[in-house]
Amino acid sequence: xxxxxxxxxxxxxxxxxxxxxxxxxxxxxxxxxxxxxxxxxxxxxxxxxxxxxxxxxxxxxxxxxxxxxxxxxxxxxxxxxxxxxxxxxxxxxxxxxxxxxxxxxxxxxxxxxxxxxxxxxxxxxxxxxxxxxxxxxxxxxxxxxxxxxxxxxxxxx
Length: 157
Hints:
Layout: E1 13-16, E2 21-23, E3 32-37, E4 42-43, E5 46-47, H1 49-59, H2 62-67, E6 70-76, H3 80-90, E7 95-98, H4 103-108, E8 120-124, E9 130-135, H5 142-156
Parallel strand pairs: 3-6, 6-7
Antiparallel strand pairs: 1-2, 1-7, 3-8, 4-5, 8-9
Helix pairs in contact: 1-5
């Protein structure tokens, strides 16, 4: 099942909500990378409460995450247009990547029974090694968990 802690992160390129293409390998040697996989922006035509709660949790510590020399991306199977709308609607400061082909979601998070990415977060160090994987977490406290992991990662390097 997918990638495990201690393994090299699998490289990929995905289009972001701002129209740029993000190549994960471009951060090797430069920054820690946080990948937050989630099922979908809007479930049954309304925003998923868990997605919104997690976004709020991460936004609350976003500047501190940046100060750890890290970048953070949210990834789902939504289209770029849907990502643009979601980011604008909730004033999210970090990029959301579109994986409509589901290749990256499959390799990292895995897919649930209806083909959506399983909610999970991967923290990758500057050498491109997966250092921590979160699955089944409390979305309201997840931003603090991410920040704590990044701070400990920087202390150990």
